[in-house]
Design brief:
With 314 residues, this protein is an alpha/beta fold. It contains ten helices and 13 strands. α1 packs across α2 and α3 crosses α10. The chain is globular, with a radius of gyration of 21 Å. The structure holds guanosine-5'-diphosphate and zinc ion. The site of zinc ion (ZN) has 7 residues, from α9.
Amino acid sequence: MNEARKGVVLSGTGGIWRVHLGRGDVVEASMRGRLKKAREQSSEESTTLKLAVGDEVRVDPGDHGDWTIAEILPRRSKLARRAPGSAYGERLLAANVDQVIVMFAAIKPEPHPRMLDRFLVIAEANELPARIVINKIDLVDAKKTAARFAPYERAGYPVHHVSVANRVGLEPLHDALDGRVSVLTGPSGVGKSSLLNATFPGANLRVGEISESVQKGRHTTVGSIMLALPGASGGFVVDTPGLREVGLSAIPSDRLDVCFPEFRPHLDHCRFGDCKHLAEPGCGVRDAVGRGEIDRARYESYCMLLADLESESS
Ligand code: GDP
Ligand code: ZN
């Protein structure tokens, strides 16, 4: 029992972190003093030492069943809401994320394409693959819904049309979640908790309930929470309220265009190197919109997000 163990950070409140050691074994740990101190120093070092949900850590046991986090292992990836070096410092939402899953309902609530585009841009800006889930197809004309989201498939995103209630289309999603760290996001009421319960039965995956208990805690900041999925290959799902906040501050405005994957083949055709694809002559992106190669609604999303970004940074 007196051995250091490796684990994954599931959540943290008020300096106490829940660390998953595997096979459902979860301990509470605090940061070792020296790590904590380094964290308070400014600049880059503090960014790398800031602990996040999803971080792989080495924990040391104490004499009285208490654990301390002795080391943060190198990160494979991260999901952040602010660019490093911005005025308020990077806002790290989760570490070691493999993919972002954006979930909407076909109806009830009505899908919000601008919000979908915003989530996808955040995934792209963090260089994370994204997939889209459209739930509740039992309530709509499935063909019409498929046509509505076809531009996203053409842009290269996997789109899963499912009905959790009728257990339609769930197997590919189960396989996509299994063994990976996924950020699952989308408006409330679209069926995220239902999806997890249906694809990974037997686990205590009441996402809403867990988030609520954190909100009710003494420490008012609502952080990200990671859930361990049951099953041999493991897999984790991150619920991060921070992703649903408004604003897109993680992206410099001149990098927004590459966050729309279907724009990329056309960017070299713009006459001006710093083309914003708004009113400039000889714009490859607008030409592609005119030819129907870029979906007009996605282009309009780009324009609106660009305006948001420029007003945020001024
Ligand atoms: P969350 O807030 O995203 O976690 O959404 P929930 O999982 O709590 O689901 C919200 C509501 O949608 C619940 O009343 C579910 O029963 C319902 N729901 C979930 N999936 C489906 C579906 O495929 N079809 C229909 N008709 N309702 C669903
Ligand atoms: Zn252009």
